Amino acid sequence: MSLLLLSSRCCGAVTAPSYVTSPMLVGRKGCVPLPQVVQHMSMSYQKRKKKALAKQMQGRQMIAPESKAKAVQEEMIKGQHLQLDSLGQIADAWVPIPSEHRASIFSLQGIRQRWEHLRKIARTTFSIAVIRRKDKEFKPIPFAQQIQENLVKLQADMSSASRSGIKFDFKDTVTAQALSQLQKESRRRHFWEFVAEVERPRVVAAFTFPVETKENLFAQVTVQLNLRQKYGLEGQPLLEKDVTEFVVAEKSLVDPKAKWRICAKIIPPFLLPPTQQQE
Fold it and tell me: Nearest Cα to 247, choosing from 217, 225, 269?
């Protein structure tokens, strides 16, 4: 394609044709006015620019979900992210019902109890898999043993603090809400002593759930403890008895500095006295 620039020449009274007054582009398709060529080129440039921007935005959208969790972790490490200390409540207070407390399998209530048991066990299995993927050091058996040791130490220290009047601080082992509740209970002078372990502690339920965003995962794990202990108020004889407790521990799975802490205790209906069960 060659560019031929023609100019008008006036020779006497003869005037140049009208098509000669504008530059022309001579090509295979004939002569095309140059302004139209420039307009076509500018339109092509705008289209190419829009396509490039669309590809760039599409690439960003594809990368964003994958790098979002990493960005949240970096913000937490730098201290620029407001991390929740604790949820302040139990997400799910379900615990497995012992066979002696279940309704008959031929009743509607018995069928519901067994169906719920299957659902919760499946959810616990899935939640433990999620926890182990986020926390490589998590193992159910050592975890349950560690929770029992923390609870025994906590109960012993709370007993001594109730008699001495010294305030105690266990922010590394219990949440703020659970600590305030324990401080209220420690106002009554009492004695508590750990005697023996009746059965090995075990994880009976687990639940993972997002808070505010899908990436901000929390986990709550329920541990069943069967202990033999001595308890009594000051001035009264100590009573030794076997106690079954369901302790809930929670942790943020996206915060690398977070620790497992006791957040609450669950008292299921079958552990209540018969008079309260009927109510």
Answer: 225
